[in-house]
Design brief:
6-stranded mixed β-sheet, Rossmann fold, single chain, alpha/beta
């Protein structure tokens, strides 16, 4: 499957960041625990604690009342792992027949991770584990295109996220940034289990939505609905009161999701119909990732 030209233009540098300090020794751009060599100046220290003659500060040493040699100590900057945890249950297949916003999002995150000297990994599953789609954290050449082809080539099927839950143990133990991409049409107990088991990581939710479902309902007429997870079809006579009730439930559900996400650390980004890179950048800058 070839990557569309629109997706090529969406290779932007996303200003994501890890809440808290990273842990690691591989050089990167994220503030990390301890002192290092590649960050901003922190303070002076004794050469006995940091025996590195290249970092001796002559002026600070001369003015030290105890006559000790002083060395400059710098903020540690380290690399992190960035993962997309992708829900591939059947309901996620809606609206992915042509341009694929989920594939565009995943490829943009992979591109930004590589540009930021970080590593990117992918875990995708629905009711069953999909290890054929999984990617260990890597920075190899051509990664964004590979990610796009993998994600766009599989819309998912089946009901539930038990497979996704079973693959969480494959995430690294070290604190990582995890973009959880899902429509979150799952029981609240499954959502709480999912977020609870990601407690050691920095979780950035992405809620996949469709305006066709939530805002383009007719005021009156017959509407055929299909449950993408079970395949069950239903013919509904849409009328004004029913339409307003559906829209109200959609708003209530989104508000409930937001309360859960904020309790676990971050507000969610809404991916509606298409991937808007500028909107995603604004979300990340405002504190969503």
């Amino acid at each position: 499957m070839s990557r569309p030209a629109a997706a090529e233009r969406e290779r932007i540098d996303l200003p994501y960041r890890l809440f808290g300090r990273a842990r690691g020794v591989a050089p990167g751009i994220h503030r990390a625990v301890g002192a290092g060599l590649n960050g901003a100046f922190l303070r002076h220290g004794s050469i006995l604690d940091t025996p590195d003659a290249r970092r001796i500060d002559v002026r600070a040493s001369i003015t030290d009342p105890f006559g000790g040699l002083k060395v400059r100590r710098f903020e540690n900057r380290a690399r992190i792992d960035v993962f997309v945890l992708l829900d591939l249950s059947g309901s996620m297949a809606f609206g992915r027949e042509a341009d694929d916003p989920i594939a565009d999002l995943c490829a943009a995150i992979a591109h930004a991770a590589v540009r930021s000297q970080d590593r990117f990994g992918l875990i995708a599953a629905g009711p069953k584990p999909r290890r054929d789609l999984a990617m260990r954290a890597t920075r190899r050449a051509g990664l964004p295109d590979e990610v796009w082809r993998r994600v766009a080539g599989d819309a998912g099927d089946g009901a539930g996220v038990s497979g996704l839950l079973s693959m969480l143990d494959e995430l690294p133990q070290r604190r990582s940034l995890i973009f959880v991409v899902s429509d979150f049409l799952m029981p609240e107990r499954d959502l709480e289990e999912l977020l609870g088991r990601l407690w050691r990581h920095d979780v950035a939710p992405v809620v996949v939505r469709s305006s066709a479902v939530e805002t383009r309902l007719p005021r009156f007429g017959l509407v055929e609905t299909t449950d993408l997870e079970t395949g069950r079809r239903r013919l509904v006579l849409m009328r004004r009161s029913l339409r307003e009730a559906w829209l109200a439930r959609a708003r209530e559900r989104r508000a409930a999701l937001d309360a859960i996400f904020r309790r676990h650390g971050r507000p969610a980004f809404d991916l509606v119909d298409r991937f808007d890179p500028d909107a995603f950048v604004d979300h990340l800058i405002s504190g969503g990732g």
